[in-house]
Amino acid sequence: MILSDTFNALYLMPGKVQHVHLYKIFRASFSKIPVVLLLIALLLPAPAFSLDSDDSQIFITGFNAYQKRDYKTAIDNMSGLLKKYPDTPLKDMAIFWLARAHYKVGNNAEAGKYMAQFLHDYPESPLKATVEDELLQLADKYQKGQPITAAPKTAAQPEIDKSAEKAAAEKAAAAKAAAESAAAERAAAEKAASEKAVAAKAAADKAAADKAAAEKAAAEKAAAEKAAAEKAAAEKAAAEKAIQKAEVKKSAKAKKPVAEKGKSAALRKKAIAAYKNVIDRYPGTPAASNASAKLLQMGIEYPAGKRTATSAAAGEVTQVFEIEVAQFADVDVELGPAAELLEAGKPFAIPMVIVNRGNGSDSFSLESGFPPEYGFRFAAASSPDVAITKTPALAVGEKFRLVGVGTIPRANIDGQKNSYPVKVTSSFAREASQTREIALVTSAPLLRGVVKTDKTRLLPGEKVSYRISLLNIGTAPARGVTFRLNYPPQYEPVGVPSGARQEAGALVMDGMRLKSGERQDVNVTFRLKDEALADQELLVRADILNGDLDKKESFVSATSVVQKVSGVTARTGAGKLAVIPGQTVSVPVVVTNTGNVREVFSIKATVPANASYNFYEDVNRDGKRQANEPIINHVGPLSPKEEAYVIFEIETPASAADGGAASASVRFDSENAPDRSAAVHLQLAYSRPVLELSLAARGGKLKPGEVSSLELNCVNRGSNLAKQVTLQSVLPAQLELVAADPSFSRFDNGVYVWRFDELGAGEKRNIKVTYRVKPGIAVGTSVQMKNSLSYQDLLGNRY
Q1: Among 37, 39, 181, 551, which is 20 to 30 Å from 94 by CA?
Q2: How far are the Cα atoms of 85, 130, 149, 314, 486 from residue 141, in angstroms, in the given order?
Q3: How far apart are CA 320 and CA 308, in angstroms?
Q4: What is the pTM of this model?
C-alpha cells in the first residue's frame, strides 16, 4: 500500500504537467508505517515463559478426559507424559490413572502391569484404598506372573464431531442454568424445611408432653388393673381350694356305707352350690370353666343353655384344653440409595424405612457402627434435626420412615470407599434384629503442586525464576486454599505475583479456588544475594493448605546449586607516600575474600630498582610491624567475606634524588581462579634536605691591618627538613677574626664552627664574618678561607 501510493504520486502522466511536493508524499507514506508495525507486532507470538510446564498440562488434560469417560484420550496423554517426562513430579499419578483407564477399556494386562508398578513404587500411597478390587487382583496376578485374560471388548468410543461438541456445550449451558435454578429452588426449599422443622419441633415437644401425660395415666390404669387381677387371682385360688375340699369330701362319702346316703346327698348339694357360686362370681375365668365341667360330670348344665352339641353325654368325663397365641417379633429394614459421591466435610443423609413384621405392637432400637468422626445419628424423616435411638411403637405392618445423618470426615481422600453397619433390634425380643451395610464413596479435592525452576546452577547476583503449577486432580472443588511459597534466605524476591503478600521467608496467597481438573500457574522470580556461599543447594517449598478440610500438602523444587565464584579486594590507607631515600616504609594492606568459596591468595609485589621488600602478617591488626610477626608470601585460606591484614615493608634506595618519584604495587591472586586478582598501588615521592652554601665577599687586595667582611649564606634547597646543620670556617693564619654574626658555636685553632639544630625546606641562614689582615704580611701573599657545610636528614643520614 505504501509503495503503490508513493509510485502513483511520483508517476507523471504524459502530456500533463504535475507539481509533486515530496514532503506530502513522505507524509502520506510514513503515516501508514505505524499501522503496519502494529500489525506486525500483533502477528508476532507473545514471549513465552522460559519454564517448561507441559507435563502439568498434559496430565490435567488426561485427567479431565478420564473424568469424562474418554479413556482412550486419557491413556494417550498419560502414556505420552511418561515417555516425554520420565522424571516428572506427576509420575505416580500418571501411572495410577493410566492403570485405571486401561482397566476401564478392558486392557486387563496393561491395567495389571501399571497398577502393579504403582503399588511397588509407591507402597505408602493412600490412593490404594480407592482402587477397584478387580484391578487390585489383576495387579496381584501380574506380580505373581500369572496369566491375565482380556476382558470382553466393548464398542469403540464414538467420535465426537463439531456439531456434537456444540450440542454438548449447549447442553452443558442448559444444565448449568438448570443447576442454578435448582440451587435457588433448593435454597427456598431448605428455608421452608427449616421453618417446617421449627414448627415440627414445637409440635414434637407438645406431643412428647401429651405422651408423658398419657403414659402416666396408662401407668396408673395398669397399676389398678394389676391390683384387680391380683385380687381375682386370690379369689380364684380360694374357689379352687373349696372345690378340691368338696371333691375330697365326695370321695370320702363314696366309701361310706349306704346308711350314710342321706348325708352324701347333702354334700352333693353343697358342692353344686359351691360350683355355681364360682361360675357366678368369676364368669369367663378358667376357674369358672372347671366348675362348669364338674357340674357337667354331675349331670348338671350350668348356666342353662350353654351346652353345645359337642358336650359330653350325661355321665361322660371330658377335659377342656385351651391355648393362647403368643406375640412374636420381626422387622424389615429398607435403605434408600446414597449419593454416588459424597463430598468430604459435607453432611449426608441415608433414607431408611423400618417395617414391623411381627404380630404385635413393637418399637425398635437403632444402633450404628460408624466411627465417631462421622457424627452419625438417626432421625425421623419428619424431624431430621432431632436425634433418636428408638422408633415409636409400631402397629403390625406399620412403616416408620427415618434418615441416617452424618458428615463425611474431612480427612477422607478422594475415591475412598467405606462401609459401616446399622442395626435395628426389636424391643420386645432382642434376638429379632436386622443389620444393613451403608456403603459410602468420598469425593474430595486432591491438590498437587509441580515446582519448576529455569536454572539449576546459579551465580551470586543472578535471577532465577520458578513456576508453580497448582492442580486439583480430585472430583470435588477446592475452596479456601492458601498457597505459601517458602524460599531460602539467600533469595530476594524481585518478581512477586499479583495478590501475594510477603511474610518472613515466604510469599502467601489466600482465598484461592480450584475446580476439579483445574490448573493454575504462579510465577515468581528471585535474585540470588551476593553473600550466597558456593556449593549451597537451594530450593523452594510450596505448601498448599486446604482450610475447609484442614489438609496440607507440600511440594519442593529441584535444587539449584550456587556456583563457585572467586573474588578478592585489597585496600590501603596509603596511596601516596613521601619517603626519604633509604627509608624503610611499612604499608598496612587489608585483603578481603569477596568470593563465595574458601581459598588462598598469593602475594606479589613490584618495587623500584635497588629497593627491597617483605610481607608480614599483621597479627595485631595495628598497621605496625612487630618483632614476632612472621614473613608471609600468601594469605588464607580465607572464608567468604573474611579479611586478612598484611604489612608491606619497602626499603627504598638511599641514592634516590630529592623530588624523585617511583611506584610500587602489591597484587593478590586467587589460586582457584588466576584471572581473579586485586592490587593496591603506591606512589613513592622521595624527599630529602639539600643544603647549599654560598659566599659573598669583597675580593681584591687588602693591606695589612685593613678590615674586611664576608657573608656565608646557607639555604635548604631540598624538600625535607635538615637537622644538625654544621657550618665550619677555617680562618688562615694571615687573618684574624674581628666579629661574627651570629656568634660561632666553637673555636679551635683557627677553626670556627656554627651549628643549627634544624633547617627547614627553603629556609636560609646568613653568617656575617668580619676579619682583618694581620700586620707584617708580605705583599703578594695569597690568602684562602675554607668553608664547609654538613647536615643530616630525619633518618640520621649525613650529607
Answers
A1: 551
A2: 28, 19, 10, 88, 44
A3: 13
A4: 0.59
